[in-house]
Every structure is written in C-alpha cells, then in structure tokens.
Amino acid sequence: MLPPRAPVFLARDTYRRRRLIDALRLLPVIGLLLFLSPLVGGARYLRSTAESGVFIFAVWFGLIV
After folding, report:
1. What is the mean pLDDT of each run of 10 residues along the chain (65 residues)?
2. Which end of the chain has the lower number of beta carbons within 10 A, N or C?
3. Domain presence at residue 1
4. C-alpha distances in angstroms, 8 versus 2, 4, 16, 58?
C-alpha cells in the first residue's frame, strides 16, 4: 500500500499572503510609471503644470494609502 500523498494545492493563507507580498513588490514600479506618465505624455495631452501637479500628488496619496 502506498503512503498518502501531500495535498497538491498550497494552503490558502500562505498563498494569499505570498500574492499580497508580490503585489506590494510591484507597487514602487507602478508608482514610478505613474509619476513619469505626465512627462512622457505631456505633449500629447497638453496638460497644464497645475493639472500635472495635482496628478502627481494624487498618485503620491494613492501610494501612501
């Protein structure tokens, strides 16, 4: 008789915790892309400096929260 096999799937708690950690590791990259987006797309959208500043502070606030 064969011994019982280990479960194929990971435990849900550790799986979800690891996925959350993976998402948190991507957060600085996403923030950098959002911070640079007014510089890259500035000529296309012709945003004013005030609108770009509000966007930067909104992204900054979103990253903190």
Report:
1. 72 85 93 88 71 90 91
2. N
3. no
4. 16, 12, 16, 43
* Number of residues that this document lists for the chain: 65
| Residue 5, domain member (yes or no) | no
Output DSSP code: residue 46. Answer: T
The answer to whether residue 57 is domain-embedded is yes
Whole-angstrom distance, CA of residue 62 vs CA of residue 39: 19
Task: Report the Cα 12 to chain-centroid distance in Å.
Answer: 22
Query: Domain range for residue 29?
Result: 13-64
Supply 46's token pair. Answer: 């012709």
With respect to residue 20, please indicate whether it lies within any of the assigned structural domains: yes
pLDDT in tens, 26-40: 999 999 999 888 888
Contact (Cβ atoms closer than 8 angstroms) between residue 59 and residue 35: yes
